[in-house]
Amino acid sequence: MADTPILSVLMPVFNSEQFVSDAIKSILKQSFKDFEFLILDDCSKDKSLEIIKDFKKLDPRIKAFQNEKNLGVVESRNKLINLSKGRYIAWIDSDDIALENRFEEQIRFLENHPEIGLVGTDAIIIDENGKETGKWLFETDPQKLKIELFFHSPFLSSSVMIRKSCLPQNFYDPRFPVSEDFDLYSKISEHSEAANIPEFLVKYRINSKGLSKSNTEKMEQLSVQVIKEHAERLGIKLEENTIKHLRKPKTASKIAFEEIAEIENSLILLKDMLLKNDRFEKTAVNEVIQKYWFEICRKSTHNGLKILNIFFRSALFCKKLSLRDNCRLFVRALIKF
Question: What pTM was estimated for this model as a whole?
């Protein structure tokens, strides 16, 4: 490895003795070799630090650190960035797994696309025993990803690689302790392009002790604030209630008939604002907004066939659906699923 590696791999750790070995092994097995691996233990109360130190003895690329007191994920992430030397940084959570060619594919992508500041990947979902339970597909088109950020974070943190020169000045914002990634990605997207590689290059573990399980309500509240501030920086004013409506396709399993009109109005408002802003491509705006309108109506089909009339007559409908989506919507509405 050169004195200044191309890549810095960053992993904060807190009480991860059950999974941290698999996470570390997956990094050491990467086909791309020129990286430093910075691991920061945030005062774990289990054997995480012992495991990290054992691996450090085996590979000189590992640099192990420990906080003097528990700082939490935001300060730990910022500390790791400040310690890093690479041109690119890649994150891995201590309970997730990187597939062998992840770094090779992402670095090749960034080298070939200098306009891209951040790139993620698709993911295989695994349970606590490592068994595959599903797959997670993300939008890949940079123009559509700019619009997706008004609804949710369209990147998986353990798959993300960032061009270090594209990081905002203060890195992760401590005001967003459980939505820090969403905020960071939004800020990066304001000054450079972002993308996802349509390949399964990580395994994402659904961990019953994970942060997202225990802080769902707080995460939702902060996600709304992230979107509000992101929109304001782009000259778009969105009220919190409007953003909550925009979040419905991601947060609600079913949508009541009485809510549809308000959500539709919020989508129309956002669409109009985006079309007036020259940062956003018209075709991408129309297609992403219609995708979420379809999701709203799909989650309202328990109200019956009248949903089809609402869907197709809306100003949000901009093109014919695929035969598959047409059938899905019709059958669900017919049986009131």
Answer: 0.93
